C-alpha cells in the first residue's frame, strides 16, 4: 500500500514539473514572437499575437429577436432593437413647497389635585385576609422567586414587544 502512495506522489510531482516547463516554453515562444515583430515587452497597446489573428471573435454578433420576442416588445410599446431610441430630455421639476411647520407650544397639563384625600383612601377596600401570594411578595426573596417564575413560565423574549 505504501508503494502505491509513493508512486502516486512521484507521478503528481512529475506532472506538475512537466506543466511548469511547458508554460515556460510557451512564455518564451511568445517573447520571441514579440521581439521578432518589434513590439516592446509589456506594451499594453499591442495585443498578444494570438489575439491579433482573430479580432472579430472578441465582439458578440447581433442576433435578431425571435418572432415571439418581437410580438412581446410590440405589445409593451417598445421599439425594435434595430431602431435607436431618441434621447429623452431630462426634465427636473422642483419639489412642491412644504407648508410651514406650526409653532411649537408645549402644553402644560395641570397636575391632578384631590379635593378630599380621605375619600380616595376610603375607596381602596381593605384586604380581608392575607393570601400566601401577597405575603410572599412582601419579602425580598418572594419577589425574586416571582421574577424567576415569570421568566420561566412567561412568553418567550422573541414574542414580547
How many individual helices? 6
In N-to-C order, the SSE pattern is HHHHHH
Coarse morphology: flat
Structural class determined from secondary elements: mainly alpha
User: How many β strands by DSSP?
Assistant: 0
Oligomer: single chain
Major sheet summary line: none
β-strand amount: under 5%
Terminal residue distance: 65 Å
Helix content: 40-55%
Low-confidence stretches: none
Averaging pLDDT over every residue, what do you get? Answer: 76
Radius of gyration, CA atoms, in whole angstroms: 44 Å
Provide structural commentary.
With 161 residues, the chain is mainly alpha-helical. The chain has a domain at 1-54. Helix content is 48%, strand content 0%. The chain contains six helices and no strands. The radius of gyration is 44 Å and the shape is flat. It starts with a helix and ends in an 8-residue tail after the last helix. The mean pLDDT is 76.
Chart the SSEs and their pairings:
Elements: H1 2-37, H2 49-52, H3 67-76, H4 117-123, H5 132-137, H6 140-153
Features of this protein?
161 residues, mainly alpha, 0% strand, flat
Give a brief description.
This protein has 6 helices and no strands.
Amino acid at each position: 500500500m505504501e508503494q502505491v502512495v509513493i508512486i502516486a506522489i512521484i507521478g503528481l510531482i512529475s506532472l506538475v514539473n512537466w506543466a511548469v516547463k511547458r508554460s515556460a516554453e510557451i512564455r518564451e515562444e511568445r517573447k520571441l514572437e514579440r521581439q521578432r515583430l518589434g513590439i516592446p515587452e509589456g506594451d499594453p497597446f499591442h495585443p498578444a499575437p494570438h489575439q491579433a489573428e482573430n479580432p472579430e471573435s472578441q465582439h458578440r454578433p447581433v442576433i435578431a429577436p425571435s418572432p415571439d420576442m418581437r410580438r412581446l416588445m410590440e405589445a409593451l410599446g417598445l421599439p425594435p432593437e434595430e431602431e435607436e431610441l431618441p434621447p429623452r430630455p431630462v426634465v427636473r421639476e422642483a419639489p412642491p413647497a412644504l407648508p410651514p411647520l406650526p409653532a411649537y407650544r408645549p402644553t402644560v397639563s395641570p397636575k391632578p389635585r384631590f379635593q378630599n384625600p380621605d375619600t380616595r383612601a376610603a375607596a381602596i377596600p381593605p384586604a380581608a385576609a392575607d393570601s400566601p401570594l401577597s405575603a410572599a411578595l412582601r419579602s425580598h426573596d418572594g419577589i425574586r422567586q416571582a421574577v424567576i417564575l415569570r421568566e420561566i413560565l412567561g412568553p418567550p423574549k422573541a414574542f414580547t414587544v
